[in-house]
Amino acid sequence: MGRNLQPKHKASRRFGENVADTVKSPLAKKNYPPGMHGPKKTFAKASEYGRQLMEKQKAKIIYGLLEKQFRLTFDKAKKMSGDLGRNFLVLLESRLDNVVFRSGLAPTRRLARQLVSHGHFTVDGVKTDIPSYLTKSGQVIKVKDNKVKKDYWKKIKENADKIEPAGWLSFDSRNLSIIINSLPNEDELPKNIEAHLIVEFYSR
Questions:
Q1: What are the start-end ranges of the H helices in the chain?
Q2: Which of 102, 116, 163, 199 ranks highest by number of CB atoms within 10 Å?
Q3: Rounded Cα distance, 173 and 186, in Å
Q4: What angle do CA 189, 190, 194 make, to 5 degrees?
Q5: CA distance between the termini of the chain
Q6: Which residue intervals make up region (Disordered) (predicted)?
Q7: Fold (topology level) of 95-180
Q8: Which of 1.10.8.60, 3.30.43.10, 3.30.200.20, 1.10.1050.10 is the CATH number of 8-82+191-202?
Q9: What 3-state DSSP class applies to 169?
Q10: H-helix or E-strand containing 123?
Q11: How far apart are CA 196 and CA 150, in angstroms?
Q12: Domain map of the chain by residue range?
């Protein structure tokens, strides 16, 4: 399974926002771009092409994808009817690893991807260990019975009242399951990704 292994703390400083997939932002200590000039260095104004490229790179890092995976998802979105940018974000959000992250069962996408890859979940009763699996409205994602007794899931159950899933998801703490009520609508899509810039980049 390919993963984006770029230094995420440096990337966060380059983009000026936390894309490090960590609970604590790297910008808390170093809120300036990486490089030899340190705090004196400022965020340079990018060209239109530069903005498009930066937005694509940022989205890849946020979702932890390599270029091939990212482009394949974009090509799938092109075949759908409706707004391309919105469809692209919906597909990224509907990845199984992202759904686990958005449900609150994992604090980062990296851990969510690891849990999926290690076979912790079923989708509609079928073991699914592919992080890129695209979920659909109405599906139920459940922690496998033989994994429930692991310490990680015991802690999740103990703190179930603190779990706050995204608005398009429901969490059943008794069965450790996620219900996909619908795919995210316009208001529920991430606001820190300007999908139109990515569309423009791939449309050059």
A1: 8-15, 48-63, 67-78, 84-93, 96-103, 109-117, 151-158, 195-202
A2: 116
A3: 27
A4: 105
A5: 29
A6: 1-20
A7: 3.10.290
A8: 1.10.1050.10
A9: strand
A10: strand 121-123
A11: 42
A12: 8-82+191-202, 95-180
Give the length of the chain.
204
Q: Tens digit of pLDDT per residue, the chain (204 long)?
A: 455 565 655 555 555 676 766 666 555 565 556 555 556 656 567 799 999 999 999 999 999 999 999 999 999 999 999 999 999 999 999 999 999 999 999 999 999 999 999 999 999 999 999 999 999 999 999 999 999 999 999 999 999 999 999 999 999 999 999 999 999 999 999 999 999 999 999 998
Residue linked to tokens 């340079």 = 44
Matching residue, tokens 């015991």: 154
Task: Give the span between the Cα atoms of 147 and 79, in whole angstroms.
Answer: 37
Which residue do the tokens 């990845």 mark?
Answer: 95
